[in-house]
Write a structure and sequence with these properties.
154 residues, alpha+beta, seven-stranded mixed beta sheet, 7 strands, 36% strand
Length: 154
């Protein structure tokens, strides 16, 4: 696994990853219509043109496995990641988070994760993130309000 700067062709892979219904359910907070390429392109254009956002492609054995990024949420840095389902359970997300945390060392750092996304919770807990609060918000993917943990690494 390696983290690298995003290349324009990575966006096609990210869009393909976003078409997986099971991955959307797990992520919960996704686009209303994941198949809308215009919305996807607009979203990624905002990310890539925001100098305060740090974003990397997760690559595994030459394939785009996902993305990891850091952005400010109410002035607090927050990490977010997406790994394509075919790469789940192989330690790739864990390795990506480790590499990202080695690159970005400022603390505190937060993450938000649906309370039933056990895989992501375990990745974060094993890195030292602790639950500091809970929140709930409407999930487009689930068409329901979803509870999430707010986790922090100090």
């Amino acid at each position: 696994m390696q983290l690298r700067p995003i290349q324009p062709e990575d966006l096609d892979q990210f869009f393909e990853h976003q078409q997986d219904p099971e991955a959307n359910l797990m992520a919960a907070f996704t686009a209303r219509n994941p198949a809308d390429r215009g919305v996807f392109d607009h979203h990624w254009n905002l990310i890539l043109n925001d100098p305060s956002v740090i974003v990397r492609t997760i690559e595994h054995e030459g394939e785009v496995a996902g993305s990891i990024l850091l952005f400010k949420n109410e002035e607090v840095p927050e990490i977010s990641f997406w790994t394509a389902r075919r790469f789940w359970g192989k330690g790739i997300t864990t390795s990506a988070v480790d590499a990202f945390l080695a690159e970005y060392t400022a603390r505190p750092l937060r993450a938000r994760v649906p309370q039933d996304n056990i895989g992501s919770i375990k990745v974060l807990e094993r890195r030292g993130f602790k639950v500091i609060d809970e929140d709930s918000d409407f999930s487009n993917a689930r068409a329901a309000v979803v509870k999430e943990f707010i986790m922090e690494l100090v």
